[in-house]
Amino acid sequence: MNSKPDIDIVIRYLEDPENVQHKKLLNDWIQQDPGNLDIFLDMKDMWHGDPLPAASAFDTQGQWQHLDAALDKVPAAPPATTRVVKMQRRYWWAAAAVILIAGTITWLGPGRYKTVTTAQNLDSLHLPDGSTVYLNAHTSIRYARSFGKDNRHIKIEKGEAFFDVTRNEALPFTVDAPDVEVRVLGTSFNVKAADAGVKVFVQSGKVSAAWKGTEKKVILTPGVEASLKHRGSDINTQVYSKNNNILAWKTRCLVFDDSPLTEVAAALSDFYNVQVNISNGQLADKKLLATFRNMPLDEVLDIMRKTLQINISHKNNLVDIY
């Protein structure tokens, strides 16, 4: 179970997440034990209003008694403003939550969830049910340690992942993305959770993409992508040809089959994580026929420059085509 100093570290960060010192202390604490990350994520959910997961076999009353005893030893705080008093109350509410979480995690093992996060690298993960997940850079997913036994539920908190799902009609495979739920039996599909919204692209099989808490959903078949924008209600779909670059991050290959320059710019922007502008509108309809297999951006731009006889500049994260 976490000690009070650990509670202090988590609370201070949640109260002021932009504080550099608080971030460092939290990061050091998470590095001490892999289970600490799961504890922190659960506490963060409750801090923002998510309910505490039920744990019928957990001695809740005993933990509250333990908390009361700890609070009795805390010296009285000096008079404070109304705002500070509210923060203190929230502080001890969160401290109680951490004790409950820690007890629950002890009961279920070293964390109820497994969390996988990538930095600037790609990664792949074989799940207990035989399915495989391929993770793009800067992606974070979570799944229960009981995955494959009584559930096949994965939460993608940010980033992009490709799922190759083993078919199991008795246990549907679901992906929880921000505001969106994806449900399948056995298929392969891509989910991208970005700031603007969630995109779901199907490579094989059928996938249901739905707004959480509503009846609004769409059934996707191979080659179809659904776009669900945050704070929206519509589900827009688009059919792609076989040669598209939605999965280029996974294959490390960009294919342009007489693709207009606007489409090329969008693909380059997504693949290389840069901003690509077409300053000269007359170039938008130029077509590119080329294949780039895991090539550096500057080499790609040089080939485009010579092939299309256009001007291209690249500085920092900005590419200008003119």
UniProtKB/TrEMBL annotation:
Name of this protein: DUF4974 domain-containing protein
InterPro entries: FecR, FecR_C, Ferrdict_sens_TM
Organism domain of life: Bacteria
GO molecular function term, any single one: sigma factor antagonist activity
Xref: PANTHER family: PERIPLASMIC SIGNAL SENSOR AND SIGMA FACTOR ACTIVATOR FECR-RELATED (PTHR30273), PROTEIN FECR (PTHR30273:SF2)
Pfam families referenced in this protein's UniProt entry, alphabetically: FecR, FecR_C
Organism for this UniProt entry: Chitinophaga solisilvae
